């Protein structure tokens, strides 16, 4: 009797453990967004007056890269310009010696995962042989994308043997499930500037 | 024995006058008096965070807790010993806010969670006779908590999973639905603490919980 009871206890216990919780299932698209900004602590932003911005969004997917300019990209670039101007910077062309440059990229990291199904019990189909050997492997991919917006210091280039390089003095990442939602583009651009008050020069 | 009971019940129903005189069908004490018996309890629990766990991490009460226990009520002793396993879950949503970290400034809606699967041994001391219809008790317990600490920033998560020591002290009472019966109600108030230190939690996870349960006993 007691053995039966403890067995029951175990089953109920396992049942309790397997109750999975998904505490973020009720987040709205807007709430799912995460804005991460960082800046060069030594940078003095008041020395910069003008900026230029890339004419299309750089798409980086693992080791491949390309550019894109569809509706959402255009909306993002436009809103970034609006915000930079609101901070006091003057938008100039790329050939007019801008003090800082804004780079916009969409970065996707894709991970390939391999798993080996427990086939010896499931695959009764395979009969007696092949027992103990994995009959096949399955693959699944997970990927995460993010917007990365950075501000490069064109005014103070670093000269290295391989040529000129520019320091990034500000960087913003926008991550989360809804970063491809065009309705939220303005909100995204406003938010990364909103939390970077040190950029303000007027 | 059974036949005697049936006859007694029969007599009791047809001859209420006789039944009032209560024929003595038990000539010896109930088996619950004489033997060590088993008692299983299923509880639903409401928990309130306490101390620095409440101040620094989650101050919201939790309604997602349950446990089951099994115990031996020892013969000739006011003590029972047993084991309990359960599931507790605390959660709190923090509206969008800025967090300064090594990575920079993070703006996110934070969802703070802690779930625990405590596995404990306990001892109860009962104040009234072991077959009384109301049995108040005090309890001490100790064991391990299989815990999962996850903080979500938006949909991104930061997780830590550990097994940590936990203990508890409690007081409660059992109420048998009928005298010498098998089934009853259990009410308990308990303080629980888990030794844990990580991220927002600096002095362990502590809570006070109230539970209501049903128990079944047999021998």
Question: Describe it for me?
Answer:
- The complex is a heterodimer of chains A (202) and B (219).
- With 202 residues, chain A is of the alpha/beta class.
- Chain A has a domain at 31-111 and 146-199: Double Stranded RNA Binding Domain.
- Chain A is 26% helix and 34% strand.
- In chain A, a hairpin with a 2-residue loop joins β3 and β4.
- The relative contact order of chain A is 0.22.
- Mean pLDDT of chain A is 82; it is low at 117-135.
- Chain B has two domains: 1-30; 35-218, Porin (Beta Barrel), CATH 2.40.160.
- An eight-stranded antiparallel β-barrel of chain B has the order 1-2-3-4-5-6-7-8.
- β1 (34-39) of chain A pairs antiparallel with β4 of chain B, so a sheet runs across the interface.
* Quaternary assembly: heterodimer
Most residues in contact: chain pair: A-B, 30 and 32 residues
Major sheet characteristics of chain B: 8 strands, antiparallel, barrel
Q: Helix coverage percent of residues of chain B?
A: 10-25%
The total count of strands of chain B amounts to: 8
